[in-house]
Amino acid sequence: MNRTQKLEGVKSLSSLKYEVIQMEMAKLKEREATLRDTLRQLAASKRQEATLRQPDDSALIAGAGIRWQQWVDQRRASVNMELAQTLAQKESCIARMKLAFSRNEAAKGLVELARQKDKVKKQRRSFE
């Protein structure tokens, strides 16, 4: 196995690593979008419940409205915590993706350089 073939292997591995991290980022972005959508839905349902409430509503009198709003607030806090964790994971993933991209580009450059050197060697041999 010559130097160019070894570098091709390194390039393949670095490319694969970069693709894996890109897939991880896609999952994190999808999770972030889902959590943000959940927060929007919770806020909308809380607003809607407040506008539909009647002063003589038996559920309101029994305190169900207050308990429901407390549940919504607890759920929003939980979703916000999950969103914060997802955003932290996303930042970490961005850093790893930058590094993987740089390594992948460097490997591509090294392979190209090795190919050019091989080509020059081949041409020199043909003139001898």
Automatic annotation (TrEMBL):
Protein's name in the database: Flagellar export protein FliJ
Residue ranges that the Swiss-Prot or TrEMBL entry lists as coiled coil: 18-48
Keyword terms: Coiled coil
